[in-house]
Amino acid sequence: MEEAGGIYVHVPFCRARCAYCDFAVTVGRDDLAGEWLDGVLRELAARREEAGGPVTTVHLGGGTPSRLSSRLVGALLEGFDRLVGIAKGAEIALEANPEDVTRDRLEGWRAAGVTRLVVGVQSTSERGIRALGRRAPADEGPRALRLARAAGFGSLGADLVIGWPGQEDRELDADLDVVLGEGVSHVSCYMLEVDGDAPLARRIRRGTRPAPDPDRAADLYWRAADRLEAAGLPAYEISNFARPGHESRHNLRYWTDAPYLGLGPAAASYVAGRRWTNPRDLDAWLSVVRGAGSPVPREPYDGDRRAGEALVLGLRRIAGVDLDRVAARHGSNPVERRRPVLDRAAREGLVAFCGATVRLTRRGRLLADEVFVDLL
User: Fold this and answer.
1) Strand 261-263 to strand 240-242: parallel, antiparallel, or no bridges (unpaired)?
2) DSSP letters along 192-256, please?
3) CA–CA dist 271, 4 (Å, integer)
4) In DSSP terms, which residues pair with 275 in a beta bridge?
5) Contacts of 355 (CB under 8 A, 6+ apart)
6) Pairing relationship of beta strands 155-162 and 240-242 according to DSSP bridges
7) What is the pLDDT of residue 210?
8) How much is the pLDDT for 28?
9) What pLDDT was estimated at residue 133?
């Protein structure tokens, strides 16, 4: 049986839903954190053969993992080590909202085993914070990064949202000044998306908020990308930039067609070529892991579909994707069937070939969806 080797844990608890967020979150129910922890460990116990072990990456995402006390984080990781083992040198990452970051919590997370901290700065301007519907003041992001660096996190990341309506060059430059000045080793620059049922998306559809300008967002993206590369953080994925050796090892699983196990509400898994996703609702997920709800259905293995996904996810990496590797895993026919799409994209200057490897061009990084939709 193929083993995951990496675990994603969805922590649904949030102080409030941000205007741009369409993730599975639970507001005002932090009192259920103990029941959530019990559910995650129950779920892992039931999936331990698929998890494999010892695991080499654990990523706590959300939601807001920093809502968890260091005691709960410690209990979670102790449970993982007991059930499947955590490898020496494993990457243990935790996403944090700036307002949750304190010296005591940082010390507690490090003592629990967290090796990588990712701070959701999003914006360092008050205009940006308001546009994104964030609750914490704009100066909380820089404060959290300073504390995390002082606490000794050798792998420190910052998330930024770019392209919010009205964002000016000087505001993006200020964001980059802060994160680079604080010595981060990883920066994620996410283009603002307004699809789905996020509050901001609903306001834009009603016409009460302006929609982002995609051309303006593209200009801001390249401004950020060029500056980060010049500062020693080249892009290794469309939205992600890192100093060499500080790439997210867990996220690379997604982009290299590697298996992973997802625990918690809304968490997705990919093991032995099959995908499944847990119920989004916290109560519904708890019912399943306690044995009272219906088992989560799994997709049957479909080599053609998996090959398309592997190509799309692999193309997100700046290094590109090896067509021979995808063919060896999912079959040569699904890859050959998509050759005309890739050849057309090459003629349009969106991808480039180097032997069996195909990668997005600089132009293709911002027009990637035009390629992806035809590969799936």
Assistant:
1) unpaired
2) P---TT-HHHHHHHHTSSPPP-HHHHHHHHHHHHHHHHHTT--EEETTEEE-TT-S-HHHHHHHT
3) 6
4) 270
5) none
6) unpaired
7) 72
8) 86
9) 82
* All residues at 6 or more sequence positions from 90 whose CB lies less than 8 Å from its CB, including other chains: 54, 55, 56, 57, 58, 115
Q: Does the bond joining 54 to the residue before it have cis omega, within 30 degrees of 0? A: yes
pLDDT score, position 363: 94
pLDDT along the chain (376 residues), means of 10: 85 82 81 96 95 94 94 97 96 96 96 97 93 86 96 95 93 97 96 72 72 88 98 98 97 97 97 95 95 87 97 98 98 97 97 97 94 95
Q: Domain 303-375: which topology?
A: Arc Repressor Mutant, subunit A (1.10.10)
Residues in Cβ contact with 345 at an 8 Å cutoff, skipping those fewer than 6 apart: 351, 364, 370, 371
Give the separation between CA 214 and CA 216, rounded to whole angstroms.
5
Please, are residues 117 and 96 in contact by the beta-carbon 8 Å criterion?
yes
Q: Taking Cα atoms as reference points, which of 311, 319, 279, 271 lies closest to residue 296?
A: 279
Instruction: Locate the domains of the chain by residue range.
Output: 6-255, 303-375
Structure tokens at 186: 């990883």
Report d(CA 318, CA 333) in Å as an integer. 25
Separation CA 159–CA 143 (nearest Å): 14
Q: How many separate helices (H) and strands (E) can be counted in the chain?
A: 17, 16
Cis peptide before 63 (omega within 30 of 0): yes
Asked whether the beta carbons of 310 and 257 are under 8 A apart, the reply is yes
CATH topology of domain 6-255: pyruvate-formate lyase- activating enzyme (3.80.30)
Whole-model pTM? 0.94
Among 145, 81, 136, 160, which residue's Cα sits nearest to residue 113?
81
Letter for the amino acid at 55? V
